[in-house]
Design goal:
The chain is α+β, with helices and mostly antiparallel strands. It has one domain. It has three helices and three strands, in the order βααββα. The protein has a three-stranded antiparallel sheet. A hairpin with an 8-residue loop joins strand 2 and strand 3. The N and C termini lie far apart (31 Å).
Length: 65
């Protein structure tokens, strides 16, 4: 049984999708179906994370389209 992560960092999300941080920023701005990132706190220095399963589902829907 392989455990999958619940959340991944923005860097990991970029690696998973094989895109640069700038490309991901443009996807977030232009694609309303792309999973939204979330922060773990209120300060600017808090980490930015993505839901791993939501990213996988989004990628699969893009492959079907």
């Amino acid at each position: 049984m392989k455990l999958e992560p619940i959340r991944i960092t923005q860097t990991q999300a970029c690696e998973l999708l094989a895109v640069s941080r700038e490309a991901m920023r443009k996807i977030i701005q232009n694609d309303p179906t792309f999973p939204r990132p979330y922060k773990t706190g209120t300060s600017r220095q808090c980490g930015v994370y993505f839901d791993y399963q939501a990213l996988k589902n989004w990628h699969q829907s893009q492959m079907k389209a």
